[in-house]
Amino acid sequence: MRDAMKKFMKSQLVIPLFSLFLLVVFNLIRDVGFFSINLTTNNQGYRVLSGNLISIFNGASAIAIISIGMTLITSCCKGQDISVAALAAIAGSVFVSVLRSGEITIPVIILAFVLSCLVSVLFSLFNGVLVAVFRIQPMIATLILFSAGRSIAYWINGGATPTVSSDFLTSIGGFIPGIPIPTPIIIMVIFLVLISLVLRLTTLGLYTQVVGINEGTAHLNGINSIWVKLIAFVISGVCVATAGCITVCRIGLINHETLLLDAEMDVILAVAIGGTSLGGGKFSLFGSVIGAFIIQALTVTLYAMKVPSAAVKAYKAAVIILIVVISSPVVKEFFVNLYKKLFKKQVEPKIPIKAS
To answer: If DSSP codes are grouped into helix, strand and coil, which group holds residue 37?
Structure first.
């Protein structure tokens, strides 16, 4: 039992799970029915699940998907991509542009998604080349698209905010008929499982961590750090495009100025809360996804407490600062030393027996 506890305390999931536990306990004390799940009928006449818990999972789905790609970039590049929200706006604009070219059918939706992924991957590779080949610090390299990305999205649709309407799109952004769980949650779970399998069944996960821990050692062991970093940016591009398309389907339009606005900050915080070192190295995809849920749960909690929307960011910042400080190496080391002092076995000195 003690060994299992020690192993859990060293896990990267300790802080995110503990933070999530505190949020759950706080909400249950404040409102025992806060996490209740109801079966209701939506506007389309389907029986669907509703409630704060469903809203948290559904609202966090796009951030969780982007955080998967951000986790890999953070691990191997020792920095963060701050252009992900702007890239999502570009991908969403391409998605809408293709959909508006003709009748919206399933093949057209698939084509629009594939093209949005290709465009997003190309822009993400632009960031990747600056980081991997020219060795520019990730936050500086991605500052270019952070500044220009939404302008590019504006240009794609000629400055308009076109709307798209289709039962197929409604199903992607809402509910598939006969399935009571929101579709974005299902997409997020599938995405997480697929990326996790790729990392486990190949050496990509190991190579990503090795490059992040010590790039020189990785090179000596025959690992091409440039390719590892570029692959991370490719995966991030697909993640960003998926999140952008889901958001477009959810709201039924593309607004380059507001689509996933400030999402990059939530994504970076989700990765940090999830236990991935912002300085590169070991990472946890599941931890990052849990971090996204924590941020969304905190947002929903603040709105439920009637906190004004203008003050929500300030309250979130205060709580997140607390979580990040608690998860820092200094604080972790303090609690580990305290644990050792409190539970260390007292070994009685043996009295040597004199030979007669």
So the answer is: coil
Q: What are φ and ψ of residue 163, in 5° steps?
A: -105, 155
CB-neighbour burial class of residue 33 (10 A; exposed 0-12, middle 13-18, buried 19+): exposed
Question: Which tokens in the block code for residue 166?
Answer: 């289709």
CB atoms within 10 A of CB 323: 21
Of 315, 319, 17, 60, the residue nearest 25 (C-alpha): 17
Instruction: Give the strand pairing for 47-50 and 38-41.
Output: antiparallel
Nearest of 172, 139, 140 to residue 244 by alpha carbon: 172
**Which residues, 6 or more positions from 181, have their beta carbon under 8 angstroms from its beta carbon?**
48, 49, 54, 175
Q: What does residue 104 show for φ and ψ, rounded to 5 degrees?
A: -85, 105
pLDDT value at 353 more than 70: no
Residue type, 9: M
Secondary structure of residue 351 in the 3-state scheme: coil
- Helix (H, G, I), strand (E, B), or coil: what is residue 274? coil
Distance from C-alpha of 260 to C-alpha of 255, rounded to nearest angstrom: 10
- Radius of gyration of the chain, Cα coordinates, nearest whole angstrom: 23
Residue range 294-343, pLDDT digits in tens: 999 999 999 989 888 888 888 888 877 887 787 677 887 887 788 778 77
